[in-house]
Design brief:
Number of domains: 1
Shape: globular
Distance between the termini: 47 Å
Number of strands: 14
Oligomer: single chain
CATH superfamily: Ribonuclease Z/Hydroxyacylglutathione hydrolase-like
Largest sheet: 6 strands, mixed
Order of helices and strands: EEEEEHEHEEEEEEHEEHHH
CATH class: Alpha Beta
Amino acid sequence: MLIKLTISKLGAAKVALNGTPVRYLSAAMDKGNNFFFRQLFDTVSSTYTYLLGDTKTREAVLIDPVLEHAQRDADLVNQLGFSLIYALNTHMHADHITGTGKLKALLPGARSGIGKASGAQADVYLEEGQVVTFGCHQLLAASTPGHTNGCMTYICHEQGIAFTGDTLLIRGCGRTDFQEGSSEALYNSVHKKIFTLPDYYTLYPAHDYKGQTATTVAEEKKYNPRLTKPLDEFVDIMKNLNLPYPKMIDKAIPANKVCGLF
């Protein structure tokens, strides 16, 4: 039986993207037997792409696709018999060009989605509390700015997982020294929107550079070397990272503003 679930810390989502009332599965009920999950990787930008699907309805979504792997992703969707309904970005990336535009050409019917505050073109603009539905599964969009203004974390409460983009990485976080970055905003986003999720939730970032694939809320609350610090210390850490200028940013940002299509 489907019931409404109030999510007090993230704000209750009222209406799904298709205009129908949002209905959540009771936490006591298990839909895992028809939930498909696949983590994919780009070795150049160390970007993770995530394919999620409903194995009964065959509807699927793809999170953070990379242009150079659009054909790979489209082939996988077709091989598995899925229908891609959404290709989503967690934010407007600076280190690679998104594959959403090309995927729409390869898989007619797919729609692109991104945070409304990103300033990028897309078919669907997501805001806090909106829900992306594929089959009987749902992703709740939580606005988590700081790395960029338009950063979104996509949360699947039914599976106890969240896709954090660059807002929260494994034992790290995204840069805040370019592209509307704000250390204070990022810190607050993590502590108010991600660290308030249950400790057992598995977190999947947009990148990892050390070969790790996932983390948990509990781990990051205990071991993240930056975000376990007080706010003023975190801001100081971020000011003194002394990272090089992103080598792809001048190419990636203009392309990603138009869905990866030059």
